[in-house]
Amino acid sequence: xxxxxxxxxxxxxxxxxxxxxxxxxxxxxxxxxxxxxxxxxxxxxxxxxxxxxxxxxxxxxxxxxxxxxxxxxxxxxxxxxxxxxxxxxxxxxxxxxxxxxxxxxxxxxxxxxxxxxxxxxxxxxxxxxxxxxxxxxxxxxxxxxxxxxxxxxxxxxxxxxxxxxxxxxxxxxxxxxxxxxxxxxxxxxxxxxxxxxxxxxxxxxxxxxxxxxxxxxxxxxxxxxxxxxxxxxxxxxxxxxxxxxxxxxxxxxxxxxxxxxxxxxxxxxxxxxxxxxxxxxxxxxxxxxxxxxxxxxxxxxxxxxxxxxxxxxxxxx
Length: 317
Ligand SMILES: C[S@@+](CC[C@H](N)C(=O)[O-])C[C@H]1O[C@@H](n2cnc3c(N)ncnc32)[C@H](O)[C@@H]1O
What we know:
single chain, Rossmann fold, UbiE/COQ5_MeTrFase_CS, SAM-dependent_MTases_sf, EC 2.1.1.201, ubiquinone biosynthesis
């Protein structure tokens, strides 16, 4: 797999971040007044007259601006990202991620690509599972070496998030021989066609400007027979749970962001972007549109989060 490795590009990436536009704080919103339903809008860019727009939370921005706005959000939240995840979800995000990785189907020698991988939560779990599976394979007599062992690639558009991830990997004493860091946009990754066995994206697709382009690029990266998995905030179906969840999201999360990360705007963006993301059925139809087969979804915690899965089958035309 031809990979542009993170370290060599770090300096250039950081320069781009500093030149990104200042964060546009969205108009204040409450749980009572979401301006559009998620069915009407998605993070995929849309045409309004001549201009191509994309939703940045509840604000429609020029599609060309969204990437730098999102980049600004994660640049600012990177140092407190992991603490905030634990606080906002009371640690439940760990269970969602454990469950998601348990469905990957890790096998010896696999190539795993985790996109929008941020500080490595998914990639580290996959890496540990891979190392376990390969140790067992060796005990069973299989001979593995540097060429035949599997690899895990963590990719993200934001060097600040990748830097936090690299720091964490070292702090945790992970064996990193099978781990690579790659800076790249999910819409067009610097990854060879048909080179990946499993492609995961967790809490990342919502942030991409053109959702459809990112799904199509995942299809391109996957080998025939490869598996695509999305873990993303989704749409709560139970009306009572939805009301409680909306109240918590709009009233507590931005406040936590303000107190802990000193950044209310980024957490307001988080809750709004969740509401704008395509609901479960719509996301499945987008996956089918680019060619994925056997597409399915599973709701976790009443649909607060959903796992979407699709396959690039060997018998495609
Ligand atoms: C909410 S974090 C998720 C991180 C990690 N997957 C996790 O579950 O903890 C979203 C990540 O998406 C990344 N991201 C945003 N837009 C992206 C894009 N167009 N391509 C790749 N990554 C992107 C951000 O930099 C950020 O690290």
